[in-house]
């Protein structure tokens, strides 16, 4: 069987400006699996999980990896905070790449979203001493200037480790309310120094991280190496980030010659709340704003191949799929071979071994009604 003509746009190759070529337009989205070893090293169950899912997509973005000891955002997260992590990361990169996918390591710091029990001395830090509105977390301590500079350096150190481990690039996680977004958001950053006080100063930390990551990549990577940035376009809080704020962030990022931007959306068809009208979806506004300067990855509620094609029709060159690759690890291969009608749509409680899902993630799936379609 051959590819359905309607789906052929998904299987065209794509080449980034730096020469890195993807075999198709489908990206495996970064998804937490809670399955790393207690010391932050990559576990055997994680390797098996990625091996089961890395055959089809053109690019795989890993779950996020914390760059600083005080940046661990959740139990079972893997670490990039020391050179001891490189051997395990090398196994992960090799596992992802063995069938032609590009391997991208997502790097982050959780900031005020870190549970106190997961960071040294329960010392949770952020841009300012402002409590999270997403979760019932501890009141964070505002980072000192020298600590901010150290964390910027940690992003560079982890980028070097990604190069040494054989990854094809890194994705800076500036979305979902984590530390980079905490510095940019007027809700979480009330500083009055060089790191806050105006929109331009609130941009200083994320842009400094981008500069450091690009510097480390240029110094340590001898060949093609991608640097991307993930962002959330809006916050529900007031004050909070609006589409207008995001446009200014995107303008600044587009000047940094990043290889791609990756929007974090629950639904690629969602409309703006504030800062842009509803004549276009958020994804369409973003593509219109910067798509000519930097490739944009679209994501959110992409369940069927028709959805994936619809997302590409907004003009973005790449589309990310997350949950569906947990439910159906062969999603891409089945669409490519004309077997899309056999794609699994519901997880059965007896499917864990067949789907090769680590137990912590499996428990989260079956005990979180509405997150995944789970059968009896």
Strand order of the largest sheet: 3-4-5-8-9-10-11-12
Q: How much helical structure, as a percent, in the residues?
A: 25-40%
CATH superfamily: Aldolase class I
Query: In CATH terms, what is the architecture?
Result: Alpha-Beta Barrel
Summed over residues and divided by their number, the pLDDT gives a mean of 96
* Poorly predicted residue ranges: none
Query: What is the CA-atom radius of gyration, in angstroms?
Result: 20 Å
Secondary structure class reads alpha/beta
Distance between the termini: 33 Å
**Strand content range:** 5-15%
Looking at CATH, which topology would you report? Answer: TIM Barrel
Total number of domains: 1
Number of helices: 13
Shape: globular
Break the fold down into its secondary structure elements and pairings.
Blueprint: E1 14-15, E2 21-22, E3 26-28, H1 44-53, E4 59-66, H2 86-97, E5 102-108, E6 125-126, E7 141-142, H3 145-165, E8 169-174, H4 179-184, H5 199-202, H6 204-220, E9 226-231, H7 243-254, E10 260-263, H8 282-290, E11 296-299, H9 305-312, E12 318-321, H10 323-327, H11 331-336, H12 352-355, H13 359-366
Parallel strand pairs: 3-4, 3-12, 4-5, 5-8, 6-7, 8-9, 9-10, 10-11, 11-12
Antiparallel strand pairs: 1-2
Helix pairs in contact: 1-2, 2-3, 3-6, 7-8
């Amino acid at each position: 069987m051959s590819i359905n003509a309607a789906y052929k746009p998904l299987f065209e190759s794509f080449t980034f400006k730096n020469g890195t070529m993807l075999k198709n337009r489908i990206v495996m989205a970064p998804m937490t699996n809670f399955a790393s070893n207690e010391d932050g090293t990559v576990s055997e169950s994680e390797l098996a999980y990625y091996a089961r899912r890395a055959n089809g997509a053109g690019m795989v973005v890993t779950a996020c990896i914390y760059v600083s000891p005080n940046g661990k955002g959740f139990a079972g997260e893997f670490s990039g905070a020391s050179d001891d992590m490189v051997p395990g990361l090398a196994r992960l990169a090799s596992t992802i790449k063995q069938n032609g996918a590009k391997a991208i390591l997502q790097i982050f710091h959780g900031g005020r979203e870190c549970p106190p029990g997961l960071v040294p001395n329960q010392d949770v830090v952020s841009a300012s001493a402002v409590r999270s509105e997403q979760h019932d977390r501890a009141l964070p301590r505002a980072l000192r200037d020298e600590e901010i500079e150290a964390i910027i350096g940690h992003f560079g150190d982890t980028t070097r480790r990604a190069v040494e481990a054989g990854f094809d690039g890194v994705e800076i996680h500036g979305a979902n309310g984590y530390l980079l977004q905490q510095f940019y958001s007027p809700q979480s950053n009330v500083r009055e120094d060089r790191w806050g006080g105006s929109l331009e100063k609130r941009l200083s930390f994320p842009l400094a991280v981008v500069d450091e990551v690009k510097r480390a990549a240029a110094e340590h990577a001898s060949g093609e190496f991608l640097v991307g940035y993930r962002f959330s376009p809006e916050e529900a809080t007031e004050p909070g980030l609006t589409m207008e704020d995001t446009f200014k962030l995107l303008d600044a990022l587009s000047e940094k010659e990043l290889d791609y931007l990756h929007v974090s959306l629950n639904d690629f068809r969602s409309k703006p709340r504030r800062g842009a009208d509803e004549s276009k979806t958020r994804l369409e506004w973003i593509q219109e704003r910067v798509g000519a300067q930097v490739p944009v990855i679209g994501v959110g509620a992409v369940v069927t191949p028709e959805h994936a094609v619809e997302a590409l029709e907004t003009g973005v060159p790449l589309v990310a799929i997350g949950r569906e690759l947990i439910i159906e690890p062969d999603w891409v291969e089945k669409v490519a071979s004309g077997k899309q009608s056999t794609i699994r749509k519901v997880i059965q409680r007896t499917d864990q071994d067949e789907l090769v899902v680590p137990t912590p993630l499996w428990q989260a799936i079956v005990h979180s009604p509405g997150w995944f379609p789970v059968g009896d």
